Amino acid sequence: MSKNKSEIAETEPSKIPFTLHPRVFAALGADLVTSDIVAVIELVKNSYDAVATNVNVRFTTDSIGRPMLEIEDDGCGMTREIIEDIWCLVATPFREQKTISKRGNESRRVTGSKGLGRLSSARLGKHLEMLTKTKNGECWQVEVSWATLSKAASLEDCAVTIRKKNGAELTNESGTRLRIKDLNSDWEDRESGEPENKIDELQEGLSRLNPPFEKFNKFTILLTRPGADSKPTEIKPSDLLENPVYRIEGGFGTDGKLAYRYTYKPFSGTGRKIKKEKRWSAVLEDLKSSVKRARLGETKPSCGPFSFEIRAWDLDPESVSEAVQLFDLQNRSAVRNEIRAFKGISLYRDNVLVLPKSENTRDWLGLDLRRVSKVGSRLSTSQIVGYVSIGADTNPGIADTSDRERLARGGEVEEFESLLQYAVTLLENERDQDRAKKEPEPTELFAALSADKLISDTQDLIREKASVSEVLPLLTRYDEELQRNRKRIERTFSHYSRLATIGLLAQQLVHEVGNNTSIIHEFIEVLKIHWAKTGEGHEPTQRALRLAESALKSLQRLAERFRPLANRGFTRGKRNASLKETITTCLETRKQEIERRKVKIEVQLSGHDEVRTDPGELYAVFINLLDNALYWVERLPENRKRQLLIKSSSTRIKGRTQCEVHDSGPGVPKKDHVKIFWPGYTQRPSGYGMGLTVAGEIIEGHGGKLGILDKGRLGGASFVFDLPQP
């Protein structure tokens, strides 16, 4: 008869120990080290941690001609105690506890911390032979058969073989030499005898271990490719990389202040240099439409300070041909190959590479995906070579994952990546200005329709007494070119028209919805806290509620204002708008931004108040001009006055009213007075470049013109336009 559960006697708790099978050595080496390239790089980084000044990576053969990989350095080497207590302890916390390596007067922040680097050799080959010696110390040889370890019955049966050697085989008085035998992969094409792309990829990976723009004389990497005749080659960047066309360098301070320098140095012609600074509040303003504010520190960056340098090149046929001639390269492909070796942005911690470790992670910052939305202006990974420098102590929240292929996701990492993308955007904006100098004015679209060259070529053939059959191809080519240019002009003007029409509604609605939904979000979050406390009369809740109600009303007013414009039967001139009411609405909409920026605004209205313009159109004109003015006055130093003046008056032309918007900002350079009205042209990192285009199109639709004065009334920019009276 069975007993009830309650009648069964309970036993005392006991412990069952965790155990690991010896095959864990091979498994960790294969899984945590994602590729052979990464494995070699990790072993070279071990040499850096040993304060080596030179490391040789050699693909050679053993005594019976089998492929073998050697990595030898002149670092500090290891004693028997270190081998036994640290090297043989997998996942040792030694480097986490001792983050600085010292050798004489030199010290380095170590790159390894997980204690798994030695398993890279298990990924590369079945047998490891290590020879290591400290200065004035004994030389030790350690041998490990990873294959034998994996077949052992238990960890108790796993051991390495160690013996004392005289050290004559080592090149230097101290250091370590690894010999990895019975390689798991082929690094050489046995049929052709030529190295595979794998060696090229390794060379590229090793070349990025040190930032390519800083001169490191204390850590030299030499690579010897497979083949009996191969000679050591020093890993270093090319002359092309030392001479970028576009460059931005700078950094974010502890307080979030951004200081940077931009240099434009074309292969031919004159360049320019600028130096700028941005306070953290200005950076937040630039990023508010593209990054969630919750990911950005309100008073300073949470990710910590960091520095960067990014270089860029144009890869159009003309620019590439210039580079080939200037740097004496073999062909156009050589230019792209030089950049490809370092392409993308590399992340260094304490001057040692963190990312990328392999070809698949070159675009870890997502620049190529980001470029899809704005092809042409935005740079691709293949066009840039850059590095960003962080520190383990100053940026503790920026950590890489165990496989060393990406950053561990978190708030600080997301903020860091957003700020780095912002730096790229600044480079792109400056590059757009310099590229615009080379691009034709819009009126030059028609220059290709000229027949001057056709006539000149035809006259030359006639003088040479050419036949009709020789002249006919000239006419055929001209006709084909004419058709292509005609289509190009049609596409260009159609594109501009679509952009202006779509931008009118999209830009304003996106801006308003973005601003006001953030307020509603704040209300919801505060309300949650209030409910959690179950208290009444919670002032933050009441304040957030009032803001949310105001925001919703603003959205409703905006929808009503734009409703007629969305109607298919909408035609201009059927409704009138009040200047006073529209300007008041715009100022109320931007009230928080005006107060935060401490901007003094003066409104002087005289003459007719109403204009024969749809209220939605008039709102779009003034809100664009107001947003531009608010953005630029915030860039003024603290000791400069932040002022705006909005005026209206009757013009000399009967039946029209003139409007003016003046600000005390930095102003617009005279050379840009035409370009600022072009679609897509902007100097605001998160701008669309459509605001002035949209405003100008609306005004021109009513027979007026939006212009900028050569000299601003308040020292900044002064925009003037006129509209018809009812």
What can you see in these coordinates?
With 726 residues, the chain is α+β, with helices and mostly antiparallel strands. It folds into four domains: 213 residues, Histidine kinase-like ATPase, C-terminal domain (Heat Shock Protein 90), CATH 3.30.565; 199 residues, no CATH class; 129 residues, no CATH class; 154 residues, Histidine kinase-like ATPase, C-terminal domain (Heat Shock Protein 90, 2-Layer Sandwich). The strands form five sheets. The protein has an eight-stranded mixed sheet with strand order 7-6-5-8-2-1-9-10. α2 packs parallel to α7 and α14 packs antiparallel against α15. The chain is globular, with a radius of gyration of 34 Å. The chain starts with 23 loop residues before the first helix and ends with a strand.
Helix content: 25-40%
Number of helices: 20
Mean pLDDT, rounded to whole units?
78
Spell out the CATH superfamily of the largest domain.
Answer: Histidine kinase-like ATPase, C-terminal domain
Give the terminus-to-terminus CA distance: 105 Å
Radius of gyration: 34 Å
The major pleated sheet works out as: 8 strands, mixed
Poorly predicted residue ranges: 190-196, 498-503, 563-570
Which structural category do the helix and sheet elements fall into?
Answer: alpha+beta
Question: What is the total domain count?
Answer: 4
Number of strands: 24
Strand percentage lies at: 15-25%
Major sheet: arrangement of strands = 7-6-5-8-2-1-9-10
Shape: globular
- Write the CATH fold name of the largest domain: Heat Shock Protein 90
Shape-level CATH architecture of the largest domain:
2-Layer Sandwich
Q: Look at the structure and give the CATH class of the largest domain.
A: Alpha Beta
